[in-house]
Design goal:
2 domains; Glyoxalase; metal ion binding; 3 helices; Glyas_Bleomycin-R_OHBP_Dase; Glyoxalase_1_CS; single chain; 4-stranded mixed β-sheet; alpha+beta; metal-binding
Length: 148
C-alpha cells in the first residue's frame, strides 16, 4: 500500500458558523454543504468529493499548548513568493491571527490560527530543488519577512 495524496482533513470545531465562515470567506474554500442541524460543513475544490469537513462539538477549545497529535495542516496557495506576500496582506486585513512566517527554501509559508486555534500553514512552492535533491526539504528554516 502507498498513500497517493492527502484526501481530506476533518476538524472538530466549537462554533460551526464561525469556523465555516472562516474557511469559506477568509481561506476561499468552496463550501459544498453546511447543515447546522447535523453540525457539519463540507468543502471541496472539485478535485475530490471533499477535502475539508468541519464537525461542531459545541465546546471551547483547551488553552493552546504542546501535545501529541496534530501540529498543523498545510494548504498550498501558490507557486511564487508574491502569492505568500499577497495572502499575508489579506490575512492581516481580515484580522486573522498570524503565528509567523518561514522560508523553507523550497516553500515560503505563513502560519495562522483558525477560530478554534488549529494551526494552518499556507504555503507557496518557490523552488523545485527537492526534485533533484530531496534533502532540500530539510534545509535550515529561515525567517520570512513579509510586508503588510
Amino acid at each position: 500500500m502507498r498513500i497517493k495524496e492527502l484526501g481530506h482533513v476533518v476538524l472538530y470545531v466549537s462554533d460551526l458558523e464561525r469556523s465555516a465562515d472562516f474557511y469559506r470567506d477568509v481561506l476561499g474554500f468552496t463550501q459544498i454543504t453546511r447543515d447546522a442541524k447535523q453540525g457539519l460543513a463540507v468543502f471541496s475544490s472539485g478535485r475530490t468529493h471533499h477535502e475539508l469537513l468541519l464537525i461542531e462539538i459545541g465546546m471551547e477549545p483547551e488553552p493552546r499548548r504542546l501535545r501529541t497529535g496534530l501540529y498543523h495542516i498545510g494548504f498550498k496557495i501558490g507557486d511564487k513568493p508574491e502569492d505568500i506576500q499577497n495572502a499575508y496582506r489579506e490575512l492581516k486585513e481580515k484580522g486573522v491571527t498570524i503565528m509567523g512566517a518561514s522560508d523553507h527554501t523550497v516553500t515560503h509559508s505563513v502560519y495562522i490560527l483558525d477560530p478554534d486555534g488549529n494551526e494552518l500553514e499556507l504555503y507557496a512552492d518557490v523552488s523545485d530543488a527537492w526534485k533533484k535533491n530531496p534533502a532540500a526539504i530539510t534545509a535550515p528554516i529561515k525567517e520570512l519577512k513579509l510586508k503588510g
